[in-house]
């Protein structure tokens, strides 16, 4: 009853709050397969893991590849307080260990908030999102259909230009927006570097 009443309204898009069981995923996939744009959330650690989560919930790989267009993973990182922001010295080894590209080392000026009344002594005031966007391209679809691992999906997506959560966080670090601690807390190190 719910599915037929949803699609009968000819909505521009359908929002499913969160997919956490087979019933919700079934409605979402049916709506997507009839040409509706479906937007939903699913709890996973990164974009490639979403494919595994859907198949674990009982969705056949061919349905995933025919209904999913784009997967966006997001996390929040703390923003350095602008009132007490100060440059800090960080050795190159530390930057390399968190995943900074060696050719980018000279461009890094790392900052941290000392703590002040503006940020209640935290050094962090506010949050910004980091994103990982994985398009369901033909190579990724082929990999999903043959049962590729999350690591393989991640590798294919990266080769096609996907910026990982770690890369997104490092970019915020490079721009002086966040701290090394926030980078480490918000993202898993890219394992296929």
Task: Write a structural description.
- With about 190 residues, the chain is an alpha+beta fold.
- It has helices at about 1-10, 20-35, 45-55, 60-65, 90-100, 140-145, 150-160, 165-175, 180-185, and strands at about 15, 35-40, 70-80, 85, 110-115, 125-135.
- Helix 2 links the parallel strand 1 (about 15) and strand 2.
- The radius of gyration is 20 Å and the shape is elongated.
- About 30% of the residues are buried.
- The mean pLDDT is about 85.
Keyword list:
193 residues; alpha+beta; two-stranded parallel sheet; two-stranded antiparallel ribbon; 9 helices; 19% strand; elongated
Order of helices and strands: HEHEHHEEHEEHHHH
Give me the number of helical elements: 9
Structural class: alpha+beta
Radius of gyration: 20 Å
| Residue fraction in strands | 15-25%
What shape does the CA trace take? elongated
Poorly predicted ranges:
none
Mean pLDDT reading: 87
How many E-type strands?
Answer: 6
Q: Major sheet, described briefly? A: 2 strands, parallel
Structure in a nutshell:
This protein is of the alpha+beta class and about 190 residues long. It is about 40% helix and about 20% strand. The longest helix has 12 residues, at about 20-35.
Write the layout of secondary structure elements.
Elements: H1 2-8, E1 13-16, H2 22-33, E2 37-40, H3 47-56, H4 61-67, E3 70-80, E4 85-87, H5 92-98, E5 111-113, E6 124-135, H6 138-145, H7 150-159, H8 165-174, H9 180-186
Parallel strand pairs: 1-2
Antiparallel strand pairs: 3-6, 4-5
């Amino acid at each position: 009853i719910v599915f037929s009443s949803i699609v009968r309204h000819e909505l521009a898009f359908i929002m499913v709050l969160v997919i956490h069981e087979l019933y919700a995923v079934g409605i979402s996939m049916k709506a997507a397969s009839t040409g509706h744009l479906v937007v939903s959330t699913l709890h996973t650690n990164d974009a490639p893991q979403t494919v595994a989560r859907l198949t674990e919930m009982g969705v056949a790989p061919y349905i995933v590849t025919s209904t999913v267009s784009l997967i966006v993973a997001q996390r929040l990182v703390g923003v350095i307080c602008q009132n007490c922001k100060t440059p800090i010295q960080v050795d190159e080894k530390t930057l390399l260990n968190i995943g900074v590209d060696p050719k980018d080392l000279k461009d890094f000026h790392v900052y941290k908030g000392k703590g002040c009344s503006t940020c209640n002594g935290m050094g962090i005031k506010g949050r910004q999102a980091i994103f990982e966007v994985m398009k369901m391209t033909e190579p990724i679809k082929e990999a999903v259909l043959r049962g590729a691992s999350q690591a393989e999906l991640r590798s294919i997506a990266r080769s096609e230009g996907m910026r990982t959560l770690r890369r997104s966080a490092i970019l915020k670090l490079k721009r002086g927006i966040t701290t090394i601690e926030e980078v480490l807390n918000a993202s898993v190190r890219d394992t296929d570097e």
